[in-house]
Amino acid sequence: MNNEKLTYKLMKNNRGQLQNLTDHLNTVDVTNNIKFTHEEESNGAIPFLDTLITRKEDGSIQLVVYRKKTHTDQYLNFSSHHPLQHKLSVVRTLLDRCYNLVTETEDRDKEEEHVKQALGQCGYPDWTIKRVKTEILKRKNENKDKKKVKHTDRDNKSKGMVVIPYVKGLSEAVSRVFNKHRVATAMRPHQTLRNILVHPKDKQETTEKAEGCVHMMCGVDCGERAA
Q: Which parts of the sequence belong to the Helix-turn-helix domain (predicted)?
């Protein structure tokens, strides 16, 4: 039996065992609310989380960023009312994934170009990409040359963190004041679409609320109840 026939036979057996395992798992939940599925590789490739794993002829694997066909490349718009660090974190997340997951240099260059185009459609200027890319490269170089240094001076330590609502122009100034006193700041949106649009219950005026009282036994067998 040649290698091709042997490989086909092994793959066929594995597929049968995988289907049997899937069928067995689907019998565990008697309520039939949980359904298990499995996915088989196609043309030597299979998606896993955010990556597409491809088996190469030499036995090694190639990783690229995987996006579903329904992916729209819509991210936090740069003109939205959010702190700048929130928008830069979008860039940082996409570039970190590109540099840390993609294995081939050519694929990495394509992914970086795709990120630039996608963010450009969301209003991100070129300087945001360059700024984050420079920070990532700087951080990698610092990690290589990093030496462990023990800080014994308590005055250099952070004194905590505060969370403040984001108001453009004001929150940045407040953050700078806190930073002078070694207090870290985190910002959250002051108003969201959920707060504006979602109201499960109508607001009830105070005058429409009915008065009520609670009665409980006082513990003494006197026939009376305490209000």
A: 74-131
Q: In terms of Cα–Cα distance, which of 152, 51, 188 is closest to 107?
A: 51
Paired tokens of 174: 């407040």
81: domain range? 15-144
Cα dihedral across residues 74, 78, 82, 84: positive or negative: positive
Q: Please report the beta strands in 75-199, taking only residues with DSSP state E, as ranges in sequence order.
A: 161-166, 184-189
Query: Each residue of 105-162: pLDDT tens digit?
Result: 999 999 999 999 999 999 999 999 999 999 998 888 777 666 555 544 455 566 788 8
**Structural domain includes residue 115:** yes
Give pLDDT, residue 89. Answer: 93
Are residues 38 and 66 part of one domain?
A: yes
Query: Is the same domain home to 98 and 182?
Result: no
Distance CA 101, CA 104 (A): 9
Q: What's the chain's length in residues?
A: 227
Name 163's bridge partners: 186
**Mean pLDDT, rounded, for 23-39:** 85
130 and 45 in a common domain: yes
132 and 163 housed in the same domain: no
